[in-house]
Fold this sequence. Notes:
By secondary structure, the chain is α+β, with helices and mostly antiparallel strands. The two termini are about 35 Å apart.
Amino acid sequence: MLLLTWKTYYSISSLPSDIWNINISSKEFGLDERFMKVVEKIHSSDKFYYCLAFNEKNKIVGIAFFYTTLYDLIRNSDEQFKHIFSIVRKLYPSFFKLPIGMIATFETYGRHFWYNSEVLTYEEFVGSFLVHIAKEDKNFKIIVLRDYIDTSLLAEKNIQNELSVNQNFGFINIETFPIVKVLFRSNLKPDEYIYDLKSKNRSYINKIIRERVSAGLTVHIIEDYLPFLEDIYDLYLNVNNNAKEFRTDCLPKDFFLEIKQQFGEDAKIIAIKDSEEKIIAFTLLLDCQYVMIPYLIGLDYTCNRTFNLWYHCVWESIIYSAKCGKQIVDLGVTNYSMKRKLGATLFPMNISIRIRNNVLNQIFKPILPMLAK
């Protein structure tokens, strides 16, 4: 068995040059170094670990990212229940919050680790890492290994073997929200993409575009979105507060500022304006080499259904990505049934979760899937 030694860095800015980009973000564009810097900035009270594994010859043979935070156990409860807890938390801020650690963050998804499969097995890698991170951080009670995405459609390695290894380490595997992507065929012309859709979906898109034009709505690509930050942030809050699946804590307004600072011209918005030039919907786009990531949207719910704003946001993001020559549009982890109408493909995703204490893990393992909801 290969003996690994580990070295931990506590910010991506401290990592030796290009190690992250070569081994992680070159395969997982949502884990772009620039984006990780933003996540660190908006979660300054949480802990970030970038762990490098070395073999006996002092060569790097693996990388694992780890993040610890307090998980709010009532985050998906109704507002009345949250209000009751908010009163208690004025005296006990950590009440009903659980320290968790995971190979991911709530803002990122994808494979946050890499190991050299020519010199060590996944079992050797993850086994050694679990020992190392337990020494690094003694506070987390739950550990989550993420994300195991089934990319067998792309003829890549199936993840079932890795999930079996996780199970042997006491984890329970849970199928969670799938990743949704648009995969453009080669030599695609943007105007041709609509003909790749099923007939009824193509007719629907053409119909809502005609209605949009008739209503005087217009589509704009805005690179410098900061002058409109107050307006678009309110629209983003509308969507986050109304989310029914994979609801996360609201991103702070500074998130939009930090994204622009890190990504520059690679961060922009597609804005839908009404006849009075008011922004009533937008999509935040992150341009990451051959992948476009429509990271979040904002909607004016007073006219969302009237104008089908959600569909316009996603459709225009896809078409703009095609015009930019992208190969993939990464549409995230929600609303697959709606995105499928726009030509998206589903990639099933699993996570592995366990309680740190072995005895408690055996007792409470049946209820752990509740944390993944």
